[in-house]
30S ribosomal protein S7
Amino acid sequence: MNTINTTFETRFDLFFKKFTNLLMIDGKKIKASKILFNTLLILKKRIKKDLEKKNQKEISFQIDKFGTNFTLLRLIAQALENITPSLEVRKVRVAGSTYLVPAVISKKKQETLALKWLLESAKKRQKSSKGDFSHCLADEILDASRKLGQARQKRDELHRLAQMNRAYVRYRWW
């Protein structure tokens, strides 16, 4: 049990470092950390509010036993799992024609793409709503955990494109 918790904590520690580095602009890491921290606080408040609304014994037991931090981490893990792509499409030129060839991508690249898409969709949401970036990022994480939002649409679009071009898998040589 203890090794599972340390592995779980290590995994999320690496996630937060990577997310902070992707969020950072012009080397302002402290500002990126504050944005991420504010996003986590917003998510935590929304989780508490949702759980109070539901007012179920099962959920309240879960909060008492594990705390809202565990629920928050599970929400983030679910959101990332929902927007993580498993395939990519690469352009390959064969005999003067260019084909879109689907290929499996590594776990590290999957996570990086998911985080980049999450940030990109939060930036688009901020431009349209003129709100605080932390709130937009929290909204996008919640949408991703429910299999909604722009990041999920981007993943589905990529998978649909790979599905349509599956006949060209034979041109893959890497």
Q: What stands out?
A: The first helix runs from residue 2 to 23.
